[in-house]
Amino acid sequence: MNYSMIRYIIGWILILEAAFLSLPCIVAAIYQETDGWVYAAVLLVCLTCGLLLKRTKIQTKIFFAREGLVTISLSWIVLSIFGSLPFIFTGAISNPVDALFETVSGFTTTGASILTDVEALSHCNLFWRSFTHWIGGMGVLVFMLALLPLTGGSHMNLLKAESPGPSVSKLAPKVQTTAKILYKIYIAMTLIQIVFLLIGKMPLFDALTTSFGSAGTGGFGIKNDSMASYSPYLQNVVTIFMILFGVNFNFYFLLLHKKFRQAFHFSEVRLYIGIILAATATIALSLGNIYDNFLEALHHSAFQVASIITTTGFATTDFNLWPEVSRTILVMLMFIGACAGSTGGGIKVSRFIILMKALVKELHQYIHPKGIKTIHIDGHTLGHEVLRSVNVFLFAYVLIFAASSLLLTFDGKDLITNFTAVAATLNNVGPGLELVGPSSNFSCFSMFSKLVLTFDMLAGRLEIFPLLLLFVRDTWKKF
């Protein structure tokens, strides 16, 4: 294990977090809030710790996949611990476990909250809470890769560890260039959404925080009713951009390079859009007795489907009161999630495509035992390594889901609450059903259960393996 390089990278992570903390300081100055001094103090602590770690003497720059996975996990844990300090010291969230839960929920773009009155927070706390979504959406390590010069395979090992999906492809010959392309697309789309929200007369502060939540597919709102009090136009803008941020960013790269045919033959994106259309239509038809007309039902159905499948978690209505068929579809969408290579969570559409093709292949083998059938996706033959990785991921996912659901039962909550709480956190969705529905929050759980759900949020965002690797003894052997 190359400990010196891990310390060096974590040092850079803290320096970047210090830079990010300067923004809520500016917000506090604009609104003349004293909480800004707390953010300034935490900024200095992050900067000091980061500079000390960065000064570590690097013994070797060789950086393998093992170091990449461990660095990702430790970076997100350190990022969340330091990011929770402003909430604790401003008194917004006095309990350290609650503050950590809220911050991890922000960075992992989950959007699950323990706060009962969001509107009571200061502007700088609201800004930081939403901005953690934007930081975590594309990944702070990806941001660092665009700036930090590393050697050898270090770039790719970090990118693979943090990027969601069964496989990662470079958009350019250099990984650093790929990271820059991803962030340029990310920033451009965020700015475009802000402009559209401002056109709809949303206040600038609201437009910024809402766009942060949509871009990172996080879902922290700055109002107690999430998005319900905003106009239909603003809700529709958010619906569209939630869907757009759930698309594989490779799709946008192909569009920018005028490879339209290749882009629109992207099987994952086509299935993703198909699932959204089918789920929206089905739910809208089931809501006929709840809303005044079909267009209103379609409006709320489209918003919630987009919010859940992209694992954003915004809400325009309490879908916990919808018919069983609608609620069941939404729970299924929690597991499917968005596209690989997007800011969304869940198992990912690409993995379901791979699993379905693997099922068809296995059935074909039963009929033709001597036949040879390979799996193809978008004209590329799927290697055995990817299929094995997907199968192992699914097993680990089910194992963590079952263990977490069992541990939550000690709180005495009902099955639907526990099941959807784990589904909402492990898939980085946010709201669940019953006691953790869109009109409720996660404050009803004990400290132990919140720590379990915090682990689930990190595991879901980091695609399970990097976090599990921390508990393997061989991981920590010296290089």
Pick out its properties.
two-stranded antiparallel sheet; 479 residues; mainly alpha
Q: Roughly what percent helix?
A: 55-70%
Q: What spatial form do the alpha-carbon principal axes imply?
A: globular
* Helix and strand element order: HHHHHHHHHHHHHHHHEEHHHH
CA-CA gap between termini: 4 Å
pLDDT averaged residue by residue:
88
Instruction: Find the structural class using helix and strand composition.
Output: mainly alpha
By oligomeric state, this entry counts as single chain
Largest sheet: 2 strands, antiparallel
Count of runs of 4 or more consecutive helical residues: 20
Low-confidence stretches: none
Q: Number of DSSP strands?
A: 2
Strand content: under 5%
Strand order of the largest sheet: 1-2
Give me the secondary-structure topology:
Layout: H1 3-30, H2 35-54, H3 65-89, H4 96-107, H5 123-138, H6 140-145, H7 154-162, H8 175-199, H9 204-215, H10 232-245, H11 249-256, H12 260-264, H13 267-286, H14 294-309, H15 324-336, H16 349-367, E1 376-377, E2 380-381, H17 384-408, H18 415-426, H19 447-461, H20 465-468
Antiparallel strand pairs: 1-2
Helix pairs in contact: 1-2, 1-3, 1-5, 2-3, 3-4, 3-7, 4-5, 4-19, 5-9, 8-9, 8-10, 9-10, 10-14, 13-14, 13-15, 14-15, 17-18, 17-19, 18-19
What does this structure look like?
With 479 residues, this protein is mainly alpha-helical. It has 20 helices and two strands. The chain has a two-stranded antiparallel ribbon. The model has no long low-confidence stretch (mean pLDDT 88).
